[in-house]
Write the structure tokens for this entry.
Amino acid sequence: MGVGGLAQINPIWQFGQYEPYKISYAVQPDWYMGWLDGALRIMPPISWTLWGHTIPFVILFPAVLFPGICFNLFYVWPFVEAKVTGDRAEHNLLDRPRDKPRRTAIGVAVVDVLLHVVLGELDRRAGHFFKVSLNEVLWFFRFAVFIIPSAAGVFAYYLCREMSGVPGIGRRKRAVVITRSAQGEYESVSTPVRPGDGEEELVPAPVPGRIDLNGELEPVEAVTSGVRRIPRR
């Protein structure tokens, strides 16, 4: 607050009248504002006139509604997912992406949308680099921001379903060395076990009704949230 009130940041009275032709086309916002600037650029010029008032939807949606939707979606997503799936248990291990294909597909699509919005902020640089019209770049991103994330989400969904049906997928495979004897016979020899090859992946499992503590079966206290806890002594 002190810097904003005391330091001279943008002395427009010294710059004079604004002249657009003196501004470089490569002006970029700060990195954290790239997604909003990209949304403003690729948004079609749509404005509504209602009851004598002009509503610039070209500014209202990308600068106000779009960031509001994004942040509120991030906030309510855990509660919405718990409501839809009915899973309110306590998870101490993260779910593998392949075990939750719908969640993974939605996550891939959302990240891809934000990625295309950020890339849309580079419309001028892309047009200059590829020697194409700026309007063509804008129209490409206007369609790509919907088509490509949807295709990526569908691809991620079916990929996760295929991976979840293959046991042991994702584990590092041991190399096999093929040798040939003097008689021309081929033989495959497995390489020695490397560090970490013998470790088994942890599989999430429900908490049992009784847990063995010091050789004695101790009852587990059940709480209303559906999570079983062991009382400390």
Notes: Strands lie at 48-50, 53-55, 176-180, 186-190, 210-213, 216-219, 221-222, 228-229.
